[in-house]
């Protein structure tokens, strides 16, 4: 339900304004522009326009000429080189040392478990012998 002030604002037509809506339309446009600028939507809109122009320009660029001149090959090689550098950054630097450390830990844990198992077996044997 609309408030009274909203209704009064929307119905403020005097007799001569019944067919001349310029005042009401101007007020609505001003309110829209104020909200638009306050929310800084114009910056987002400008960004969308720039991106749109970049897409149009790229679609109008003759790609065949770039292939013939060898620029696409050079660009592809540059992208491949950058990709290799990025992949090198992703790989752990001390992976081999870490794997060796984990293998030593596994061996020591196995030795400890085997020693505990041997002790348990000896206790069971001595208990069985004492019966």
UniProtKB/TrEMBL annotation:
Signal sequence coordinates: none
Domain of life: Eukaryota
Biological process terms in GO annotation: endosomal transport
GO cellular component: BLOC-1 complex; transport vesicle
Family to which this protein belongs: Belongs to the BLOC1S5 family.
Protein name per Swiss-Prot or TrEMBL: Biogenesis of lysosome-related organelles complex 1 subunit 5
Source organism (scientific name): Caenorhabditis briggsae
């Amino acid at each position: 339900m609309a408030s009274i002030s909203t209704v009064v604002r929307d119905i403020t037509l005097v007799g001569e304004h019944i067919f001349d809506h310029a005042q009401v339309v101007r007020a609505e446009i001003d309110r829209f522009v104020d909200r638009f600028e306050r929310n800084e939507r114009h910056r987002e809109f400008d960004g969308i326009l720039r991106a749109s122009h970049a897409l149009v320009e790229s679609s109008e660029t003759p790609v065949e000429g770039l292939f013939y001149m060898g620029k696409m090959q050079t660009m592809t090689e540059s992208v491949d080189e950058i990709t290799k550098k990025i992949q090198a950054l992703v790989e752990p630097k001390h992976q081999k040392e870490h794997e060796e450390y984990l293998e030593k830990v596994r061996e020591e844990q196995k030795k400890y478990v085997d020693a505990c198992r041997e002790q348990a077996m000896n206790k069971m044997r001595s208990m069985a012998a004492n019966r």
